[in-house]
Design brief:
about 35% helix; Rossmann fold; 4 domains; five-stranded antiparallel β-sheet; alpha+beta; binds S-adenosylmethionine
Amino acid sequence: MGKRGRGGGPRVMKRDFRQQRDNSWTEQRRRDGDQWASPVLENADFEEYYKAQGIVPEGEWDAFIQTLRKPLPTTFRINGRGRFAADLRDRLQQDFFSQFNENMEVDGEPLEAPKPLSWYPDKLGWHMAFSRAQLRKLPILKQVHELIIRENDAGAITRQEAVSMIPPLLLDVQPHHRVLDACAAPGSKTAQILEMLHQGTGTPSGVVIANDADAQRCNLLTHQTKRMCSPALMVVNHDATQLPILRDYQQKQAYKFDRILCDVPCSGDGTLRKAPDIWRRWSEKNGNGLHPLQLRIALHSAQMLKVGGRMVYSTCTFNPVEDEAVVAELLRKSQSALVLLDVSQELPALKRATGLSKWLVKSNGELFSTWEEAEAKQAHAKLFSSMFARGDTSDLHLERCMRLLPHQADTGGFFVAVVQKVAELPPSAFVTAPKKEPKQARAPAGKAAQKAADAAGWSAPAAPLPASQDRPQEGKAHAVLGADSERREQTAMEEVTDMAYEAAGHTQNFAEEIEDQDIPAATESAGEAAAAVEGVFEVLASGEEIEEEEKAAAAAAKECQGSTTQERGVDAEIDDPQAAAAAALEAQPEQTEQDSRPAPEWGSIRGGGARGRSTGGRWRGVDPIVPFTDTEQVASIWEFYGLPSGLKLEEKLISRSQSDDRKPKRLYYISEGIKHLLMLDENEQLKITSTGLKLFERQDAKDARTSCLYRIAQEGLPLILAALTKQMVFVTAQELLRLLTEGSIALPHSMRLSMETLSTPATYQNGTAEGGSSAAVANEEAAEGVQPPTKKPKTEGQEEERKERVPWNDPETLRQLESIVGGCCVCTLRNEEATALGFSAAFSGATEGALAVHAPMAVSCWRGRASVNHMVARPEAAQLAEKLRAALSKRDASAAPVEQPKTAQVQQPEDMEADATADAAAAQAPAS
Ligand SMILES: C[S@@+](CC[C@H](N)C(=O)[O-])C[C@H]1O[C@@H](n2cnc3c(N)ncnc32)[C@H](O)[C@@H]1O
């Protein structure tokens, strides 16, 4: 059974986290009396092991080991490509990096100037190596440091380890590609892949499926990728060795991917420079324990790759047992269907060591080059034959793998292999030779394909079966999951994942990753961030618990490895009915009855989530995917915002709740590619954590008078902006800055009346249409004697502040404000000013694939009776304001304070405050 809940440890830690108590485990480990313990930066076993492996070229060992003891430099990449990314790069260079030169020093120590990563395209990747002491002493360094944090938060750059940027670059993703990121959390590579997918204009036809076995880390993944605002992303939560292989009935083949990234869980010793704790914990057992899991992930992924497609296998370890051994066995099992690509001419400036063609495996303190040697010494019990180089490997071209060694380019350590699929994989690659296990005999040879297809769920009926009937049909066929098998799969998944965690010593790394990612503490997504952090705490455990869990992990590992005393080749590990079924059908593509069925219809629930669902749903605690097909609501949205019919919203919107599906709280927009995938998932095999771009949110305010129930979510605004023909207000940069910083700007008194003479006066209260006419509303208010409440300022400061507040006063803006109706509206920069300040114009269409960071300066707002309020979460509003302020001050050359026009018509402060408060409440701005 899964162990993470046992012993109360993690729960206690979660509670401590919630109650903000100190974490005694980490405290004890780091403190040595009153001093912080200095980390040990050596490990004799590590040195002996890697010297023997020959991973470092002759004469470079000392440089290698010394570099491993130094902290990792900061590296970042500028997000996106094209004009906007180049502009930011040039700005950084001009304003900051040009101030450095070769001869700078701090306290006699030379200072390395920031420099572009020589191999990263278009100088969009950067490297900076300052010590903390230098940072404190030199103001320019502090400025650069703050700039990096700010731009990272604003989504313009991403702080990411240099070596971790390599796999996505070698994947060569194009906008039409279907991409699978098999082990994706926390998501730095997923974000990079998404950028590549969005490198054209408009919504890409391709998709990115980002998977991780750990549900909490899937939340982190969702949080990290949220700022990309992509409708072409789906986050799923599966063990990558059992990711469902969906059948595309129309194309009569399995749904396969053009690109797959297998950035597998590993022992992580390539991250020693940022996780020095690994020195103390390093053991070759970590790598040995992870090899089978890595191989199974790689093999199952390879089955999901299209012929002609590219797969990148990567780890952050130097260990050949987790690197070349996995790749070699993958190639061998594929029987030449997979080949290693020679990528020596890709990223030509990247310094790299070639892959090994032979290596050693350590067990019981001894190094062995063959299984037979280990067996002769009775040291083979915990090994697999696939861990060994196994004879002549020259035909596999393992030299085409690459190992990034820290001293060669001042980076972390990494391993990358790029594989191309040239033919379908043979079914034998996935099926275990019958061992002791099967209760039922295996299907006879001729029917193997159909039998396997049954097991994989391809012949299941169109409508999902109730959980009780939905049972696996044979052996370990996890593909058709009922309640029992769900439990089984989850248990197996937890065990494998737990083993991986413990073996990899990933607790430290996870904490590091989180630290690196700078999760905002108080954003709209604070809940998600907290859940993610809780996830980290979940994998932390006290010393005793680790010991106990190690025993359990060993037991689970034994169970996983089987008890055979014969040579345990990889066959003992591979039992993948889904992949076998897919391979068998691919090999005998005769059409089955199911192949000719009509295409499924949009409208039924998908995603397998059981939460809030009266029937069906195999994934407990997960929300189902509910297509939003309420044509009446869609028509009202359409009419209110003046959207063109081509958008076909009713075919692209989903919600995540069934119980409230008539008026769901949030509506998400999905791309065609994601919709296609959802349609294929007829049996709801996918466990979907998140998908789609939040486009609309229900307007719940009691006194909100608007004819449309849904307001535009800021997140989805870049996608829909160019399509809006109503409710748009083009404002000046100064007005937009004021709106973002003050939260709301009052309407002049004269315009308050115009709200009461609206042309579309239907009112919604608590989501229910109440009808009425403008005159009725006005009369009703008059009858009630609605008067602006007056309030005395509490402090002098408040009074000063309120005196300074002026209503909208630009004549053009006022004209536009008069022409819109009450409710949600969008304030965006006027086109000329946007262009002059270096932003995209709202209707330029130059949104670079709707990548949020390059979106026009536009803000989702609420036009109330007496003011306009923005509806953006506070941190995001602050970032937008900062961006705008920086552009303005650059344009004006001097950062002069925003001048208020002298002709401003000042509204009574008391009225304004009361009205603005009422409007803000009506708008229900997330953080204002
Ligand atoms: C090296 S990390 C991936 C880092 C990620 N690619 C990135 O760039 O941010 C490995 C991930 O694999 C996940 N993992 C472990 N076992 C897995 C399995 N069986 N299937 C899928 N993911 C797994 C872990 O939860 C972890 O998030």
